[in-house]
Every structure is written in C-alpha cells, then in structure tokens.
Amino acid sequence: MVDTSTAKQLVQAIIDNLEQPVPGRRPVHTIGVGVKGEFVASDVACTYCIAEHFNGKPVRVSVRFSNGLGGVNQHDGWSDVRGMATRFHISGERGSDLIATTLGEFFVRNVDDFFEFSKIAKREKYERRPWWRKVWDLLQLKIPPRNPYPDETKNVDEGALRYANRHRFAQLGIFQVGLIGAPESYARASYHAVHTFWVTAPDGVRRPVRFSWQPVAGVRNTDPKAVPRDRYLFDELRDRLQRWPARFMLMMTIGEEGDALDDPTKPWPGTRIRVVMGTLTLLKVSEDQEADGERISFNPNRLAPGIEVSNDPILEARLGAYEVSREMRGGCPFKWR
Amino acid sequence: MPSDEGVLDRLVDWVHTTDVFKCVASWTLVPYWARRTPVKPLPGGPHPSFQHGDNVQCMMNLIMPLKVKSPIGRAEAALAIAKNKDAIYAGLNNVGTVHFARFVIVGDNICMFSVYDGDFTNYIRDFIATIGEVFNEVVKLVEGGKKVIPCEKNVEAFIQWVHEHDLYQVPDTATDFLRDQEDLKGDRAVSPVDDDLTLLPRKLVLQLRANANISLGSGYRAYPGFSVAQVRKHLKLGW
Amino acid sequence: MINLADLQGNILRGYTKKPHVRYLILEVVDRSAARLWLAASVSGRNGVPQITSGDWGENKPDTCFNIGLTYEGLCALGTPSASLKMFPNEFVEGMTARALKLGDVGASAPEKWPAPFNEPKRIHLIATIYAEKFEQLNEVQKRALPDEKAFRLLGTREGYNFPGDFVHFGYRDNITQPRFEGVHDPERYPDRQPRAPLGTVLLGHPTNLEGLMWRVPHPVALGHNGTFNAFRVLKQHVADFERYLDRAASYLLEHPQGYELLPRGEEEKIGKGPSRRAALREIVAANLCGRWRDGTPLALSADAPDPNVDLTDFDYVGVGDARCPHGAHIRRCNPRGGQIVQRIANNSRRLVRRGVPYGPPYNPDGPLYDPAKPYDGDEPERGLLGNFIGASLGAQFEAMSCDWLNLGLQDPRITGSNDPISGTNDPGTSWFDLPLKSGDTIRLHGLPEFVSTRGGAYTFLPSLKAIEYLGSPM
Ligand code: HEM
Ligand code: HEM
C-alpha cells in the first residue's frame, strides 16, 4: 500500500524547492478558493459507470480552484498551471474526488522521474535575457524566452527545459506549461484529470477513461502582453457566481487498446470516443474559506465504487503524498470509500 | 521591474513582432537555415495507426494545381464536378465509408477535402472502381495528372499520386511534430537524449517552407470514433 | 484458358497429398550463381530441384518445390531498375514496413520477430518443399543447397498437415478457396459464390473490380502470370484459447439468456456428451470461427454441427445472415454476398490460402493442459505457416487485414472490434457478439490475442517464364 517514506520524500522534494516554507499550507497549489456547487449526470453516464454520482440524481459538490505555484505570494496573472479539485459528496458522508489541472499531460512518468526532475528543475535566477542574446535567438529562428514578471527573480523554467531536452516524454508537458498563460477566470479554463481511470458499467464492462472539465462559458486567457495583475481570480469568481452560476461539462474519453493507460505524459488522440458524463453547476464561493479552501483535502485515489485507479505510478504515488502533505499541514481527514 | 531594460532591450522586444522583421527573416534567415539544417517534407495523410478511433473519420486534403490558371480553367473544374453529381452520390452510397466530401476552388487549385473511414488506399481504390471516370475528368485538368489517368488502368500510380497530393497533417499535440521529424530520420532514441526544444519554432518554419500547404491537426471531431455506417445505423437511416 | 504449365503449382493447387512442408529462407550469395540456379530450377537440371508447375501431366511429382522472391531478392538478382519500379509499393516496402496495417504490434511487432525474420532485408528467396515423407524434405533441401555458392540458408520453418485438415485450435481448415473463371478445378467444393476472375490471383488478367487492372511489371515475361504472397508465421496460443473457451462457457452458464443459445436438454447434440459447459465451449468456438470445429458452417447449421450439410454452399443472407455472427472469422475474411458497408468490395478481396500447422499437436487430455489446473508453463511454440496469395497485396491481403479483420468496418455491428481468432485483441477492450435466435446478442468480453505474428515476408511468385527470365545470364 502506501509507501510512507517515498511519500514523504516526494513532499519534501516539493518543499525543498519552495522560496520559503509555507507551514500549515499546501506546498503546491497553495493559493486556492473553495466553491460550492452541484453535479447532475447526463442521461447516458449511468450506462458507462455505476458510481453513485453518475446515477442522474443531483449531487452536492465541493470544488477548490488553485494556482499551481507553491508559496504564499499570489500571482494570479502569471503564466501558471491552475488546479480544479472536485469532491462529489455521495451518500454515507463519503466522497469521490477528481483532481484536474489546466495542463493536459504531466511531465514525468513515475516517481524516479519526479525525483530526477526535482533535482534538475530547481528554482534558478530568472532574469531578462540581454538584448544581444535575444538577437542571437532571433537569428537562429528561436523565440526568446519571455521577460520576467515584476517581482519574479527565480523560477524553474531553465531547469525544466534542460530536463525536457533530455527526455522526450517530458517535452509535451513542459512545452505546454510554457504556453499555458493565465485564465480570465477560474471558470474559463479546461481542466484535465490526466491519469487513466477504469470505470465499471452496469453490465460489468470495465473501460479505461480519462476525464476533463470543459467550461460552458468557454476558454479565455488574459492578454500575455499586458502587465499581469496579482489578484483578480477570487473576486472575479465571487462576482460571477453572484450574477449567474458557472457551469462545466464533464467529458470522459474512452481509451482503446494501444493507448497509454499507465503513463500520464502520453496524450490520447482526439479520435477517441468522448462521452458527456454530466454538468457541474458552481453556485457560490464558500463563506468558510478556512474549511472549504484550506482544510479541505483531496486525494485522486479517493474514488466512489465503480471508478478505479489504473496502474499509473504517478497516480499511485499521489495516494501517499497527498496524505502526508495533508497531515503536515493539519488538513481535514476524510472518509475513504 | 529590472532596471537593465534599456533602449536596445525594448527595441529588440518590439522588432521581432513587426512585419518588416518577419519579411526580412523570411528572405534571409529562413533560406539560410534551410540550407544549414535541411528538412524533408513530411508525408501526407493520416498518421499510420492500427487503433480503431484513428481509422474512422480520417481526413483527406488534396490541393491540386490546375493546368489552366484562369477563370476558364477554374470553370472547367467546376463543370467537371457539377455534371457528375449523380456519379458522386452513387460512389458515396456504394463505397459507404465517406462522411463528407467537398470540392473547393482556391486560387488556381481544385481542392478535394473528405472525411472517410478505413484505409486510404482502400478508399481510393473503391472509388476508382465506382466512379473512376469522375476522377479522370478532374485529374486531367490538373498539373501532372495526365500520367496517372485513366485511373482504372493505373490504379497503383493513381493512388500514389493522390497520396502525394494529400497534405501533411501536423499532429494535434505540438511536440509530436518533432517526433514526426525524428521518425523520418529513423531516430527512435529514448531518454536520455540531447534535444533542443527551443528549436521547435524553427523546425516548424522549415517544414512549412518544404511543405507550403499543410493541415493543422487531423481535424476536430464532434463524435469521434464512429464510422459512417454506425452513425447511419443508429439514426435508423439504413446502411 | 490459362496455361497451367506456366504457373507455379502452389498457386492453384493445394498439394494435399504432401503433408510435410519446409520453408527454406535464403539470401543470395552470388548473383550469377543464383541466376544459374534459377535457370536450372525451371527444368530441374544439374540436380537443382525442379519448380513444380500447375500442370502435372501424367506423372505426379514425388515432391513439390516452389519459390517466392522478396523485393530485396529481385534487387539482389540484378533485376533492372525499370522493372523494379513497377512493383507495387507494399511489396517494395516489405511486410515489416506495413506492420501497423497488418496489426503487427505489441507481441507481434517485427522488432520482436526471431531470426531470420529479424533481418528482413537479408531475406531474398523463400523456397518451399512439399513432400509425402519427412526424409524427402532433407533430400530435396540437399539438392537445392549443395553448397553456399548461390544461396546462404538463413533459416527454415517446417510444418505438417494434420490428418483431416485440422489446425491448432482444433478447427478443420482448407475448406474454402476461390474457384477461378476458366480453370477446371476438381479439387474444389462447389459453392454459390461467383467464380473469381483470374486477375484475383494472377497479374495480367481482369480483376473483380470492374475495369481495374493491376500494374504488371515489365518485361511481360517477368510480370505476366506472376502473383504475390504474404507468408506469415502465425503463433497460436492454444492453451489461452482453450482457457478462454472455459471462461466464456462459465459466463454463459450464468447468463440469463444462455438458454437461448443452448436450450436445456440439447447439450448432447453438440457432440461433447451431456456436460452443458463442454457444449457451451463448443458453441463459443464455433461462433468465433463461423464454423463448428468439424467444418460445419453456422450459416447452414447454427444449432449443432452436422456432417450432412454442405461445407461451402452457403451465403450470409436470410438464415445464414442471422445465425452466423457478423464478427466470425470466416465472415470477416469473406462476407460473400452478405450485406457489407463497402458494397463494391463484395467478392473483391478474396485470397488463395495455403497454410500448414507447425509445432506439436495440442492435446487437451494430455499433460499439456488440464482445464481444472490451467496450464501456466511455457507452451511449446506452435501455429500456422500461412500463405495468403493474391494478385494485389494491397487490395486483398492488406485490405482484408486492416479494414475487415482489425477494424470491422464492413458492418456497423462489429466496427470497433477485431477478428476474434487472428485479430490484435486486448482483453481490456475486446468484444464479440454471439447472435441469438431472438435477434438479441450476448456480448463476450476479454478476448486476448490468440495469434501472434512471429515472422513473414511479402514475396513475388514468378511464373515459370519469369524464373527463366530471372535465370538468364545478365
Ligand atoms: C508525483 C507527482 C505529484 C506529486 C508529488 C504531487 C504533490 C502534491 C501535493 C503534496 C499537493 C498538496 C496536497 C495537499 O496538501 O492536500 C498537491 C496538490 C495538488 N496537485 Fe499534485 N502532485 C503530483 C501530481 C499531480 C498531477 C499529475 C496533477 C494533475 C491532475 C496534480 C494536481 C494537483 C492539484 C490540482 C492540487 C491542489 C489540490 C487542492 O486544491 O487541494 N498533481 N500535489
Ligand atoms: C492462425 C491464424 C488463423 C487460423 C487458425 C485460421 C483459421 C481458419 C479456419 C478454421 C477457416 C475455415 C476453413 C475454411 O473455410 O477453409 C478459415 C478461413 C479463412 N481464413 Fe483464416 N485463420 C487464420 C488466419 C487468417 C488470416 C491472417 C487471414 C487473412 C488475412 C485469414 C483468412 C481466411 C480466409 C480468407 C478464409 C476463407 C473464408 C471463406 O472464404 O469463407 N485467416 N481460417
């Protein structure tokens, strides 16, 4: 089961790369906001998966949106991966979690990769590239790296690039991180759960699937050339939900033989069958952010009966890592199954 | 804000976004790098795959330069399609694997775009058998078409010719474009390698130089994974 | 009328009386010596075994000997490049380059093929010896390869036709072959399929697709009356197959509609005694193939094997349509006159098949496999040495492999599934529908890959004139 020593090392590797420790908070996705909502499965969802939240009755949902960066400094406007962690509250005070980010594919395949990545992709000085080096880039038909944001002195970009140049499996993930930008709203981005899960249908058939949330309002990023704003996402979401609920469609892609089932760095092509599993309606930003934004703790391995993990080693590693991290920061425990 | 932002700094940041820079670079840097690091045009058509989803709703994008580059040439092409409406429907219904087929005139090219199920050569071969005459009438108006018609008597050459006109489909995921180039070179190395991811833009530019017309991705599908006949059957339209 | 004496004999004949078969996989050592050898083989001079033609005259040959050349082989023999250019792409590229089309992935991928198939470019010529007695194989091989002057032996493959034409998995094979226009063919069972035009199997003749002709490589002496062969070493996982039948039978025993498949009390009809499980196993086996293991087609007798029904005279219309699964192996390979999506392709993708099993026969009652104690050691390698012959590899063998066997494009009810017997199945996603009398189906899941490719090559089977041409001094 959970290998606590590996789990601790994973969390430690993340903490070690922080600007400064953030005791009592998450070491990544530190800044986040808890939201309340409701999920209603589509009419076909129950024919693919017997999990309770797909049976068509509305289920209560807790969502936590977050900025990917670790640390207490909030930089909403920086180019960064965003998180959307969702708990479907099913009967018996139990939950089924689905953790997704705006990154479609991860950049490491397993724990060993992750440690190597952590070693190579350390926070390093990040400065504006001198003009003559930019000219040299342009002469080579390369695009010069972006200028640092105000206040940005260090980041992992250089190291991540070095890692990607060594490992082709990491290139897609890292390339996409480079382009990811900042959403205009947490409700205007697509979020992908990255790993493969197995869902069981009422007739016993098990299918390998991947989940994504797609915003009904559409995807929209801020202008990358504008000066980034540090704080706007929480207020935007609060204002938006006061006017009108925000909705997401839950899309489930069905894998085929030959698709990567245990490797979160490999995308599945757009030619796979895609099923609408339901609609999430976000109703309001929670009033108790301490409980619903901070103490709440998710785990991608907390799954309602009818959904199972694949053999993805990253998914497996997250089981322990998220528990360790939760304990370290005094997060709220939650029932397993 | 870092204080080292000088005039030159701002100039460089600005200059590469200007059309003048892009123009000059196209005339100087692009040919230079094309000579220094030559790239071969990547082959057209869908990426070979044995997986089911990849073998339904495949895209064909033909751009065929007309021999007569004038309104007359274009009208000839338009007429060749128009007068064969019956033949085209008969082919569509009997081959049974085509979702959509469109003929478009762009500049002095006749373009044929279609979405079909199954193997490309089977698709073209079955169409040669049913409506070879329509192909002959269109292809005879196209540069280099003479040598592959009548298609019925030049089946292999005709299929090859069509394949060569089928646009390269850039992968839907950006970095798979690099994999295509490595494949073409027979480079199947795995980690650790010594790549330079920042060269992706240049590689794309050079590929587009070698391959002026390409398809951006393999198409976006609303109901991927289903064949024509599956759709028709589920809609109770007969198949 | 076609001159049978100009064709290699294995194209239209099955050599059924010669159960021992050996394939010699050869590399050209010396071009001139190899050409001399070819010249000698036409008439059997200088001790070189004579190529068996399609016309045996009065005297049946004791042994048969035939050859096929790969593209590399044609190059090695010094075939002019103008001629080489006229060979079709798929042949030029070779079987390994077509792996994705053929479903040669995973365990079947060419990178995993054992020698000599791991070096496809070195395979130039595949010679086949057919004999009544085993010793004759050695004798002919010795004559064919007295030394290494002309050819180097890269490897051999050897098979033996089991009595009654049974193959591993226990089915009777060698029943259906196309019957050709203008060829008198007493060996073949009559059926109601249209006779295939000669161009189905020989270059230079009209094909089944109206008005279409395949390109004949020049000079005429080289291309005319030649044909192509997909030689395949197909490993069969027999223990897995039998185990799967067990699992499917258990599933059907519990299935509420299982009685529709086999009404209670009718177990004995299946011929496996009173055991319901044993009977259900046979029913599954029959449905996967489209024939009961004794050869009875489901299209004619879906409820039980019946030695009295015709083996080939059936079609997939009416009852034949309803009771033979759309996904059954023989129906996927040859939909006959049944409804298919690509209507134009009915009857156009037919193949001449020459196969022989290799490896020891499998004995379900012997020590190798005990259903109560599923066998978990290494199964000895066994399978089928298959030859799939047709005038266009692309339009026949490949077309069948990629769209019909492995995608199921021909029928929306099977699209998205693979052939249950020879398809590249993955137990995680595979399925197969068993038709019931009521029109419902029971879906089976979890079929593993029962057959893996362990080697093969595309070869050109030249006419005798072509062999003479290739054997002429340069
Ligand atoms: C080895 C790989 C990974 C490690 C070690 C890791 C580690 C962590 C840790 C320690 C936390 C804080 C958990 C807590 O204190 O509750 C966290 C949060 C998070 N992670 Fe990961 N993670 C990994 C992979 C991923 C992947 C593949 C995704 C993409 C879906 C992801 C998305 C998130 C999100 C969205 C959060 C915030 C959850 C929340 O709002 O509570 N992580 N991660
Ligand atoms: C080891 C693998 C295979 C086994 C055990 C096998 C077995 C059989 C059997 C038992 C039959 C019925 C006998 C008959 O009608 O003559 C058959 C028919 C046939 N098989 Fe296979 N087969 C295999 C692979 C293949 C492959 C790879 C192909 C084609 C690419 C193929 C093509 C055919 C065709 C065309 C028929 C005749 C169907 C008809 O005309 O009705 N088989 N096979």
TrEMBL record, chain A:
InterPro entries according to UniProt: Catalase, Catalase_core, Catalase_sf
Domain Catalase core: 7-337
EC numbers for this chain: 1.11.1.6
Keyword Cytoplasm: no
GO annotation terms (biological process): hydrogen peroxide catabolic process; response to hydrogen peroxide
Listed GO MF terms: catalase activity; heme binding; metal ion binding
UniProt KW keywords: Heme, Iron, Metal-binding, Oxidoreductase, Peroxidase
A Gene Ontology cellular-component term: cytoplasm
A Pfam family per the record: Catalase
Domain of life: Bacteria
Protein's name according to its UniProt entry: catalase
TrEMBL record, chain C:
GO molecular function terms attached to this record: heme binding; metal ion binding; peroxidase activity
Keyword match Iron: yes
GO-annotated cellular components: cytosol
Name of the protein described by the UniProt record: Peroxidase
PANTHER family noted in UniProt: BLR4509 PROTEIN, DEFERROCHELATASE/PEROXIDASE
Source species, domain of life: Bacteria
Co-factor(s): heme b
InterPro entries: Dimeric_a/b-barrel, Dyp_peroxidase
Entry keyword Nucleotidyltransferase: no
Coiled coil (UniProt feature): none
Key words of the record: Iron, Metal-binding, Oxidoreductase, Peroxidase
